[in-house]
Write a structure and sequence with these properties.
103 residues
Length: 103
């Protein structure tokens, strides 16, 4: 089995070819690209751990879609003082499809 651990958008993900991952909004003008921050690679029995990244290892991806996440609603109040507050938040997300692991 072939997989890798990558660092993108401030988070780490365990990815393999053909997998789709959801990350925080990824701003780039191209629909395809490659990630050079590969922290670990596994190819059957051969494991390579980076210090901090693995040399000459890249992960190719393509952007599937940009979308908003589920709405999170927060309500706070203080009893006996008529204080009420309501907040809502929707995260901006991006779906990435991992097309190829190069190592």
């Amino acid at each position: 089995m072939k997989y890798a651990v990558i660092s993108i958008s401030g988070s780490q993900f365990l990815v393999s070819e053909g997998q789709t991952i959801t990350i925080d909004k990824f701003t780039t003008s191209e629909k395809k690209g490659e990630i050079k921050e590969v922290l670990l690679t596994v190819n059957d029995d051969k494991v390579t751990v980076g210090t901090p990244i693995v040399d000459k290892a890249t992960v190719e991806y393509e952007i599937v879609k940009d979308f908003k996440g589920e709405k999170i609603e927060v309500s706070t109040y203080r009893s006996k003082s008529r204080y009420r507050r309501h907040l809502g938040f929707r995260a901006q997300l991006t779906d990435l499809k991992i097309t190829k692991l190069n190592f």
